[in-house]
Amino acid sequence: MPLHLNTQADLEEAVHALVKRDPRLKPVFELAGMPALRRREPGFVGLAAIVCGQQLSTASAAAIWARLAAAFDPFHHEAVRRARAERLGRLGLSAAKIKTLKILAREIASERLNLDVLANEDADAAHHTLTSLHGIGPWTANVYLLFCLGHGDAWPAGDLAVQQAVKIGLGLKTRPTAKEMAPLAEPWRPMRGAAAHLWWAYYRAIRKREGAISGSEKASAVSNKVPVAKRSSMKAKIRTAQLPGSKK
Question: What is d(CA 232, CA 191) in angstroms, rounded to the nearest whole number?
Fold first, then answer.
């Protein structure tokens, strides 16, 4: 039975276990602090909301989802399955997203897909089930497994923020690729989902620290009437990474 991160206490217990198991994570935890658990609604509603947000800004995704939620109350797979594509398009969905939601609705209605049972499957198998569906890529699958189902071993190997955090935290020369992230995370099974929360918190802490340093340098430069120095190469690199919830 996979570990489930249903409560903040679950996450904290897992993070402490990870730090105890892997000493390399101790300085990561000391800088990051305890991450906060993030959860979203499971089932068709949760996955549909993630699909709607693919490749969009947070504001745009929220606006489209608000229109959908108002038009379909309750937001149920049968209602979406029966809805005309033209109506869904007027609410802001692209043709590709309409196709994805229609396929998901049909798969659930025919009972070929049960999204809730994925929480009790092996993380890699659950990930494969989701990504085999039209329009569901690794990012969407990981967000659903981690934040909708609280799957404790889901591992977002392709997330740029996690990759950059792992590079810095483990002292790697280059940012690992999604393929390289898999073996790096092996020591953290079956708690890779908790490890992902920790790495995201670490990435945010690095950005916050670098921002504070930059602000201090700027203030000093202004007071001394000299040009602001170029930012460190590390900050330049992490600026390109994305926080969880980024659309890739």
Answer: 33
Please count the other Cβ atoms lying within 10 Å of the Cβ belonging to residue 191.
Answer: 25
Residue 86 to residue 145: CA distance in whole angstroms: 30
What is the mean pLDDT of the segment spanning 46-75? 93
Phi/psi for 24 (5° steps) reads -65, -20
For the stretch 108-162, pLDDT in tens is 999 999 998 999 999 999 999 999 999 999 999 999 999 999 999 999 999 999 9
How far apart are the C-alpha atoms of 140 and 132, rounded to whole Å?
12
Q: Cα dist. 142→20, 133, 235 in Å?
A: 25, 14, 26
Beta-strand ranges (E) seen in 92-179 are none
Looking at the structure, tell me whether residues 30 and 91 fall in a common domain.
no
Q: Does residue 1 fall inside a structural domain? A: no
Q: Quick check: 121 and 190 in contact, CB under 8 A?
A: no
The count of structural domains within the chain is: 2
Does residue 71 lie within any of the structural domains?
A: yes
pTM: 0.80
Q: Which domain holds residue 115?
A: 43-148
| Per-residue burial over 98-109, b = 16 or more CB atoms within 10 Å of its CB, e = otherwise | bebbbbbbebbb
Beta bridge partners of 151: 4
Nearest residue to 196 via CA among 122, 204, 209, 211 = 204
In the predicted model, is pLDDT for residue 53 greater than 70? Answer: yes
Clarify whether residues 129 and 49 are in a common domain.
yes
